[in-house]
Amino acid sequence: MKHFLPALVAAALISAPALAQEAGTITLGLGLGYVSPKDGNGIVGPGEADIGSNTRPTLTLEYFIRDNIGIELLAATPFKHSISIVGVGEIGETKHLPPTLSVNWHIPTGGKLTPFVGVGVNYTKFFEESSILGELKLKESFGLAATLGATYAISDRAAVRADLRYIDIDSDVYLDGSKIGTANVDPVVFGVSYVTKF
Known about the structure:
By secondary structure, the chain is mostly beta strands. 6% of the residues lie in helices and 66% in strands.
């Protein structure tokens, strides 16, 4: 009898319904994203740039064009980053919006845990730049993106998700109208979210 309860719990977990991902399914995810730029963000003005990390709410909307294959749009509230020069200190800050459109393959497992991989394109718009050095401007960026993650179904209509993204973000930097370098942001983005199926 003492082995019956653990076996019953294990059977329930295995047989619990997975989040359906058939063609025509739409999912909405609400969560948080942590943007962590790579170390060494390029030579900007007097030295090497160092761009700070930031966390903001995120939203994902995914439409499944075929079973297990979805087109996903990632959006977020504006991220805010400090901009420093190594050996000089913080010289300014900027905000950005990085909408990313991806094609994801959700690997069918027959269980509650469903890993996925994706590739896509990113557009990043910088705005509200400020600097103690003068008028700072970061140009918009287009680049590739890659995603690795997993969803864990908690019902047939809801799941929790964790994902890891790499986004290619490179922006030409201008000070008082003159180009002073290129910021190679190239962040890794860690995300967690609650996903609902429609």
